[in-house]
């Protein structure tokens, strides 16, 4: 009994204290900072585990809270177009409690942004869910003291970054952890597709809203993602034919998959890809040996398949999109040839 009391009163070692703090959720860590001043220093050195982070050039969001940085008008005339040079209003929206709070600060946009960034994004910080990058303050791009900072992110979303912006923030991403990337591309961001970490990430979602951001067929062919998901209304039938032919001739790995989302009124323009593959690439309608593959899919017409050597084949078909009822997806995937498997087993 006396030994148990001694154990309870014995203070934690430095390493044990760090382990305890790192295991706490964000809100508890912040409460520790407010209520236990003696732990603020060690707490400030340890990385967080955050949920769904959004970084913008004038805002920051994580764990159900959003900070928005805005300029302020002169108080004597709120309708005035004249702004106070240094004063900023930071509005914090708490989506969990449905409350908001406003603070007036005599700081620049960059100073406030850095304060938020440095508070939550530390070396070793883990982002569960996704990290969304939608702009970086101009002055932040010239900051040099964050080169050793690495955060662990599995899912990265980007909105039309140019190459310079991309290279600024990708250096803080732990590429050994990164698996899935989603990017809205524009004219100034196409060079990102040639970056090694983009070409080889597990799943790449390429979103294009106009012709200015349309990748070339060569760029698409150079990608080696396990799943390439392409959403664009401007891909031509000829481009798709070249892309399919490249997949066949380059011998993609088993499980490699391509999805192209298109609108229903365009189907008449792209369905000929299946007939073209039959005529020029030796494709045939998928046989009963692939029933297992199609058993959980709602497809249009019949799927087709092209042999890719002795042990694999490329399956192609159209299916209804899971997102909306008016979109279709062209799918192709490299699958194991069950006929070849049967021969091997004998």
UniProtKB/TrEMBL annotation:
It comes from the Eukaryota. This is F-box associated domain-containing protein. Pfam families: DUF3557 (PF12078). InterPro entries: DUF3557 (IPR021942).
């Amino acid at each position: 009994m006396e030994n148990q009391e001694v154990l309870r009163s014995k203070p934690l070692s430095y390493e044990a204290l760090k382990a305890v703090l790192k295991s706490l959720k964000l809100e508890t860590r912040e409460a520790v900072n407010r209520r236990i001043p003696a732990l603020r220093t060690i707490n400030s050195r340890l990385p967080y585990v955050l949920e769904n982070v959004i970084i913008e050039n004038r805002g920051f969001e994580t764990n159900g809270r959003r900070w928005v940085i805005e300029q302020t008008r002169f108080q004597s005339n709120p309708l005035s177009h004249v702004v106070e040079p240094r004063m900023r209003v930071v509005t914090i929206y708490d989506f969990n409690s449905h409350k908001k709070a406003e603070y007036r600060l005599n700081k620049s946009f960059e100073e406030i942004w850095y304060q938020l960034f440095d508070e939550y994004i530390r070396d070793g910080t883990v982002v569960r869910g996704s990290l969304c990058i939608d702009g970086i303050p101009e002055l932040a791009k010239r900051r040099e003291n964050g080169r050793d900072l690495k955060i662990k992110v599995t899912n990265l979303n980007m909105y039309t970054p140019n190459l310079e912006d991309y290279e600024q923030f990708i250096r803080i991403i732990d590429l050994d952890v990164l698996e899935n990337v989603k990017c809205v591309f524009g004219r100034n961001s196409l060079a990102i597709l040639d970056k090694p970490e983009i070409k080889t990430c597990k799943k790449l979602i390429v979103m294009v809203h106009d012709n200015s951001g349309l990748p070339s067929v060569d760029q698409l062919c150079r990608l080696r993602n396990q799943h390439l998901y392409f959403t664009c209304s401007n891909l031509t039938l000829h481009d798709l034919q070249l892309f399919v032919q490249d997949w066949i001739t380059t011998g993609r790995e088993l499980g490699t998959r391509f999805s192209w989302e298109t609108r229903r009124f365009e189907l008449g323009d792209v369905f000929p890809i299946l007939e073209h593959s039959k005529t020029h690439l030796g494709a045939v309608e998928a046989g009963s040996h692939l029933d297992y593959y199609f058993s959980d899919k709602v497809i249009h017409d019949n799927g087709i398949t092209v042999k890719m050597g002795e042990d694999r084949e490329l399956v192609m078909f159209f299916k209804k999109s899971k997102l909306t009822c008016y979109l279709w997806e062209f799918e192709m995937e490299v699958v194991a040839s069950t006929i070849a498997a049967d021969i091997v087993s004998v």
